[in-house]
Every structure is written in C-alpha cells, then in structure tokens.
Specification:
29 strands; nine-stranded antiparallel beta sheet; nine-stranded mixed beta sheet; alpha+beta
Amino acid sequence: MNLFEQFQRLANAYFLFLLFLQLIPQISSLAWYTTVVPLMVVLSITAVKDAIDDVVKWLPGPLADILLLSSSEPYSLTYIETAELDGKELRLQSQDSYSFFFFFFSGEVRCESPNNRLDRFTGILIYKGKNYVLDHDRLILRGCIIRNTDWCYGLVIFTGPDTKLMQNSGKSTFKRTHIDHLMNVLVLWIFLFLGSMCFVLAVGHCIWESKKGYYFQDFLPWKEYVSSSAVSAVLIFWSYFIILNTVVPISLYVSVEIIRLGNSFYINWDRRMFYELKNTPARACTTTLNEELGQVKYVFSDKTGTLTQNTMIFNKCSINGKFYGMHIFLLSLKKVDFSYNRLADPKFSFYDKTLVEAVKRGDRWVHLFFLSLSLCHTVIPEEKVEGELTYQAQSPDEGALVTAARNFGFVFRSRTSETIMVVEMGETRIYQLLAILDFNSVRKRMSVIVRTPEDRVMLFCKGADTILCQLLHPSCRSLRDVTMEHLDDFASDGLRTLMVAYRELDNAFFQDWSRKHSEAYLSLENREDKISMVCEEIEKDLMLLGATAIDDKLQDGVPETIITLNKAKIKIWVLTGDKQETAVNVAYACNIFEDEMDGMFIVEGKDDETVRQELRSAREKMKPESLLESDPVNSYLTTNPRMPFKIPEEMPNGNYGLIINGYSLAHALEGNLELELLRTACMCKGVICCRVTPLQKAQVVELVKRYKKAVTLAIGDGANDVSMIKAAHIGVGINGQEGMQAMLNSDYAFSQFRYLQRLLLVHGRWSYNRMCKFLSYFFYKNFAFTLVHFWYAFYSGFSAQTVYDTWFITFYNLLYTSLPVLGLSLFDQDVNETWSLRFPELYEPGQHNLYFNKKEFVKCLMHGIYSSLVLFFIPMGTVYNSVRSDGKEISDYQSFSMIVQTSLLCVVTVQIALETTYWTMISHIFTWGSLGFYFCILFFLYSDGLCLMFPNIFQFLGVARNTLNLPQMWLSIVLSVVLCMLPVIGYQFLKPLFWPVSVDKIIDRIHHCMRHPLPHPSRAKRKHASSQRSAYAFSHKQGFGALITSGKTMRAKMSKKNTMSGLPLPTLPSFNPYKQMWK
C-alpha cells in the first residue's frame, strides 16, 4: 500500500518507467543498478518516514466509540481524561441511574449516522419495552483515557473511520506549499526540455548514420534489428532518454522531505517557544509547510484565548440599574475584605466595597442577582478538604461568575442530579433542580429551573444581551436602557459581558411545559431543534436583574508581536464572535488599530445595496481611482467577468482600519459583493470581523486565498476556529483554555500568541531561504552534470556513449553531492535569530517569492549550461593531443572521463561553498569531507582487486593512480573552477551595486550595527482604549447540563463526606431571614 502511494508521485513513477526501459537491451545505455540503487534508497527512506508517522498517529487511545453500560463506581459513573479531544484533564461520564449487567443485556440501540460532532450524540436504547435516551454524555469516545474506575462495560457503537475522532481528523485536505506547486511545473518543463534534447540528439544520430555510419559498417556493423538510420534514431532517442534522465533528479523529493523534517525539529526544540507555566513546547504537526512559514502575508486571528489570556476575572456588574465595580480612582485602595465569608476564595479580588455593603444590608435585588449566578450554571464542584472548594467549568466565564457569587456570600457548595446546595450568607439552602436548558451557539443563553425551599418554581437565565433583550418583559424597558448604558461602559474597557434575568413560573404551566420537554428529549429525529422550540416557550417575559462584566487580559507580548509583524508587511485580521466594540478595543490595545490612523470604516448595512455603498465609499477615500472604469482590475472584470484571476496589491493613500459585523459580512460574502469586500479590506492596515460564525471565518480565509496571490495563516485556540485553521494555507493552534480541537487540527501548535513572530520571522524565514538555496543549487548541479553528455554526443557520433563511469552516475546524487546540499539546507543562516527579529523587513522577499521562482529557475538552467560547456571543453582542450612525460598519449576515454567528473565535483563543491553564509563544523565536514570521500572511494572502485574480480562491472582498472599524477588533470580542474566561478563571484559583487533590493540595504545595516551596536529596543506601550468606543460581548460554551440532570455527579464517598461535615443533603433550614426577597 505504501509503494502504491509513493508511485502516485510523478517522479517516482517516471523512474520506475525508466527502470523498465533499462531492462530492454536494444536501448539500454546504462546498467540497471544506476537507477535501481537510488530508487530503492528513496523508496526506503520515504517508507520508514511514513511508517513512523503512522505509528505515532495510531498508537494513542482505544479504537472505538463505546456506549457506557455499567461501571464499578456508584450510579455507573466513569472518570475519563479527554485531553486528546477537548483538553480537559478529568470529567465525568454517566449512564444515569439505569445500568445493565452485560451478561444479561439484550436490547436494541438506534442512533444517528457517523458524524464529526464531538459534543453531540443522539440515540435511543430499547430495553425490555422501555426507551432510554442516549446522548453524548453516555458515549466514551475514541482517544479518551479511563481514570479512577476499576472496571466498566460498554457497547461498541462506531469503529475505525466512523469514530468521531477520525471523522474530525479525516476530512482535512492535504496542504501543499507554493514551492511544491512550482516544482511540479518545473519538473514538467524539465521533461519537455529532456524530450527536446533527446529529439535533437536522435536527429543528429540519424544524420550521422546516414552520412558516415552507413559507410562505416565494416568497422561498426549495425545490429540485426536495425534496418535503417531512422530505426536506429528511434532507438537512440530512448537511449539518450535513459542517459539524460538525471536532469530530473531522483533524490530531489526525498531530499526535500529530509530538509523539512530537520527544520521541523528546530521548531520542536526551540526553548524560546517553550511555555514553562504549562510545560508545553512548540510543536510542528506537519513537516510539509515549513518554507511556507516564510511567505505569509495575511494572518487571521481569533481574539479570545488567542490574543487574550482567556483567564476570566469578575470585574464589574450592574444590578437593578446600579453600577458596581472597579474604577480607576479605586485602584490605589485596598481590596474588599471577604473575611466574613469563611468559604470565600482567597485569590478573588474586588475593590468596590459598596457592593459588599449592599449584600450585608440584605438588598433584595443584589441577593437575587448573586443567587442567580450561584444557580444558573453547569459547574461541578469538588471539595477534597472541607472549606476548600474547586470548580470544574466548561468555560472560564462560567467559573468566574460562580466564584464571584461564592465570595459575595452565595456559595455553590454541592449538587446532585436533582438538587443544588447553596450556602447563602452562611446558611445552607437546598434547591430542587427541575431542568437545565443548556447553552449552545444558536441559543446564546442558558437557563435553570429550580424549586425553592418555599415551593416556588423559578427560572434563572443568563446570556448574550442581543438575545435576552428580546425576551424581557415590557415592564423592564427603562431598566433595560440603563443596563445597556452600563454595558456600553463595560465594553469600552474591553470587558466580556452577559445579562442576567429571572422569571417566576406557575406550577401548572411548568408541569405542562415539562411534559412537552420530555417528549422532545425522547425524540430521535431533530431532537435539538425540537428541544430549542420548547425552550423558547418558557424563556420569555423575563425580569431583568442586571449584567456582569468579566476581564480577559491580553497575553504577554501581544502588542509587541503585532508591531513586529506589521513591520514585516504582514496584515492581521481579527475574526471573532465577540461584539464589535469589545473586539475594537482589544484591537487598539494590541496595536492592530492606532489612534493615528487616517480613518476607520464601519460596515453595518443590513442589505446588499447598503453594504456595497459602504464598501465603495471606503475605497473611494482610500484610493479614488480604484472606482474608475480605467482601473486595471475593473477593466479586467469588465472583459473577463468569469475568469479566475489574482487581484494585485493596491496601495491606499494612508493607514485605515475596517470593522464589519457578521450580519453585514453575510451579505458581503455573496458572489456580487465579495470582490468589493476583498479590495476594500486588503487596502486596510487592520480588519476586524465581529459577531462572525465559524463558517464565516473559513469563508473570509477562502476569499483571500482565492483572489490574492498570498500565503494565509489562521491562528486560534477553540473548536470554533477549526474551520478557519483548516481553510488557511497554514493553521496554528493555541494550547489555551478551550480544549485541544484547534491544536489537533492545526499544522503548528504552541501556547502563546507571541511565539508567532519567532515561528514566522526566524524559523519560517530560515526555512524559506534554505529551501530556495537548496532548489537553486540542486537544479544547477544536475544541469551541469547531465548536459556534459549532450556536448559529448557531438564528438561520439551520437552513439549514446556516456561521459562518466556508471558508478559515478550512480553515486553522484546519492553520495558525492547529497551531504553538502543537506548541510546548506539544514544549517545555513544569512543572519542570526536576533537580527531576524530586530529587522522584520528581512521577511519581505519571501512574501513575493523572490528567491526561487520561474525566473530564478531559468538562471539555474543558463548557469548549468555554461558550466557544462566549461566542464566539457576545458578537459577536452587540455588532453587533446597531449602526452605524458614518457611520450604516451593521455587522450583516452577513461582518463578523459575521470578528469571531467573530478572537475565537476570540484566545481559544484566550490559553488556550494560560495552559497554558504553560515559555516559550522558540520558544514565543513559535509562540504569538504564529501570531496575527500570521492577521492577515497575512487581508489577503491578503480582498484586492481575489484576490477580483476568483477571485470564486467568495474572496468576502470588503474585509471585513478595513472590520471591523478598528471599535471594536465590539475590544470584542467583549476581552469574549470576559475572559469565557472568567475561569473558567480562577479554577479554577487555587482548585484548589490547595480540592482540593489531592500534586503541588501538591511544586510549592510546589520553589518554596520554589528560594528556599532544599537541600544535594545524598548517595549511598546499599551494604549488605553478610547472611552468613545463601546459595546459588549458574550462568550460561553455548552456545559455539563445533560450530565447533571441525567445522573449523579458525586461519588458516594463524597456524599458521606458532606454528611460528616455537618451538611446533610435532605435537611432543610427551619428559618431563612432572606426569604422575603421572593415577595
């Protein structure tokens, strides 16, 4: 199977075809081993690499998705580690209160078809005539590790490629670099060039045989199968096709893979990309895209968890129209004292004591607000030591809110599937949990329905303001307006917000609704849609309590990183689900936007025409001539409206920023508006797309890929970034707080956004430069090597006679020249990492692919042609009519062959020495050691012993010792090296003088700085967000709701522990001084 995959490559298939040609005696001009040996080495190395990749890929985790039936723990709990799936260290898996002993189990499972939704599973278990609901909390997915559970039994649901993990990982398209695509084109050009040379030589052979060979048959008779010179020419065509095959190097692809593998190890080993707090190194998940890292033009970034820390801190709140929180003038004050609450989290900080005073004096709305936060969530508590609570939350936002309620006196203590225990101002109260309406990306809210100790049915809801505002009771209009103003203030500080509301339910109404909810929950088809419709019936006419604001600080080094990337001409677009002004304020804080910008365009139209006008008016200000019919892009679109093309770079008349929301983006991505959006956005310094869906993120990336001749990179940390990461040329995953999905689907992964500059400007630029040098040199040395045969044909009667010894042909690419080029490609540096980061402008040549393109390939071809002429005619002129000191001639074929091949190796060795800019001991060993190795193996292959033992294979008996002592040989080598290197040295000297590029000037500046060191650059200052920018955001994710309501979430020993600590679950308080708050 591996061989089949390898022969899908055109080059490998070509050499297999070539091997078959060499087995035909009538046309074979080379021994079969000249192709077999290199081909076997290439196939073996590739097979070993693929085998290692497969072993690493298939080792971890079980190989099936399993439905949990029973386990050793109470209530059939199973503790599993899902780090391979979502980054969580430990979570609970439950089979509800019903369990089935596997020996006697006989039932039927009906479930959905295989899909890639890790967070969803729909099915029904039919057992003894009863239907049991199956969801994702009953499924142990492939890749999970079972912990703290003695045994469990399960039923296999999906296996192999049908498992959810494989459904997620198997849909990615194989990414290839721009250089890969260019190489395919160049190899096709080389095939055509090879065919042309063979045709010319075949025609020459036909003419020579007609005019001379026909009359020379007494000495060189034709073979019996040759009836004419035309037939002989056809056979000679294929003979030269075999001889000149080295113009397409067989070791090219395997050398490229080795180089990429080595450069990937550099990324994995980079200590400066190692994040000590999480003990996580940077990781190259692919080895095929390294040089593409040196060509990135557009970076598409998520905001939360990528630019920010995704570590949430409760900062401010609005309760019943009153503002509470930390003001700037309060920063110098002491933190609020929570010593009155023995269960408070000591790490929690708050600076506004008025909120604590409101709690202490029994403010009804404040109590109800924090009670809502302590009840409306899916957090799972752990209390290993009495009084030391830890919360496991599916989102950092939810954990921060529950912790805030805990510190203000409303402590979420424990829960079961049916109850929630809250310690309110030191007094324990038990709430009966009736339903959890969990969060999802469509609802953007979650609710809980509880029965209070006073037997009242209450619904508590929290969610995005855009959603909850539509669900409020009309009587809340004035309170809503005040709260919205507070939300604007929160957003101006870049805080993440949500609204909190409640509703008291009639018991009869709830019972009727509960029946509908159960029916929807048991439905096998469209279960989620039906549940959502039922939820909408009860989540209405809500009473507004207030709003929360959570601070998500920028990661360290983000502003400095973005400044550096901007200097490298890399454009950064932020694609986020947050509200507009929160995203904008973060953009200002991290220097994507600047206060000194010439203008800021906001696209917020709600129909196609409005969006078009907003985009065109922005483009008119940035570049008025882009709207004229004479504009090149407009002219092309007019004449070729349906032809695919690449939009060139358009330079605006200043620095501008673009902001567009998800609703307007949906219109702008339509076919007739996408080019308007693209041209406008690409002229801006920074772009913010807010309130966008995961699909829209991918569509934006695809739009730039389709119409811009540029490399794109997407970076994110959550599952909602996966589509964007897969769509980009390069995907980078951040190891953050939102799980492992982004990392599992990425090409590169690390823990901090600031490492991106090192990935691109150091590793990416080095990889690109090295790959370009490798390709230029590799094609050059093979052209110089192969074309000598072409010139020799004119002196050998076009007889398909080779210039070199067959063993030299076999080992040329495999041994003699492989190590020097690998040393160059793995160790060379034009400047070190410090200067690469100090001068980001060095990155620009890669964005325009200046170092290796079709023009550079033609230069390599011309250079190879010139070198081959020198390498053939200088040795010929040297040995022509020459004699030894003893009078014997030296112009025999074998001596000439050895002089040519030795001159060739010396020339290509000196050439690579001139290309090398960073010498190490390994570079010296590889470069000069390979040349020394050639002379050593020369004496071995041309030794008397081998030639006498295998005279048909080793035929150059005594040539080495007889030729190496000739002064003519060393004269030929010196002349060949000098004549081949003079043009190269002259070009390298004159190019910066007459055809300078920006990089040459920067290199000169670096050399000047090395002589006169510059002071270390100061860190960029973060700018405070303008108070005029305001909006708000909401971030949350689906929690443990279904697990909580469907089974016990605490083990029996935890329950015993709680009972021993004086907190028995069934005991209700006899008196509650705060029960008046419900009236």
